[in-house]
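Open question from group meeting: does this chain pack into something compact, or does most of it stay loose? Before anyone orders reagents, we agreed to write out a predicted structure and look at it together. Recording both the input and the output here so the notebook holds the full record.
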Amino acid sequence: DKDGNVGIGTNVPQVPLHAYGGGTATNVGADASTVAVFQRSTSTGANAAVEIISGNNASARIYFGDEDDNNMGRIYYDNTANSMDFYTDNAEQVTILSSGNVGIGYNAPTAKLYIKQATGEGSEAASHLRIQGSATSLYSLFFYLDATSAYIGTASTGRNIRMYCGGDKDI
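Structure tokens returned:
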């Protein structure tokens, strides 16, 4: 169009790249930072998909970054291992294997949820797993390991930890 926008399937592109399939393209509500819109239909229940296809022994990737580093954040789908990896700050953070096992800080999880802390981070402040009632709650439960021990604790002053098994208090 006269603004330099390119339309595929529409002659009224609303952003620099507007790809449309089916019916009449309508206002997409894109904000000023939108570079591309992929729109299938304005009909209720009309699904839309974007596919990223790579070779059989390769990975399909999406990169996120800025002018100084164009791939600080990444999503990889590894077609060889059938796994998905998520990166932040140029480091692999989460892996999901084809078995459904999820690794946080570990790329070969052997359990449904496997959390591995970075070396030297064993303390209540950097617990492996923390469960907290709400953002402002004083009640939380944490689990962490150090070189010699495993800990289960609460950061809530004056609170006890109670363990139940089959409805009976064990401890």
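Observations to bring back to the group:
Residues 14 and 28 are 8 Å apart (CA to CA).
Confidence is low (pLDDT under 50) at residues 121-125.
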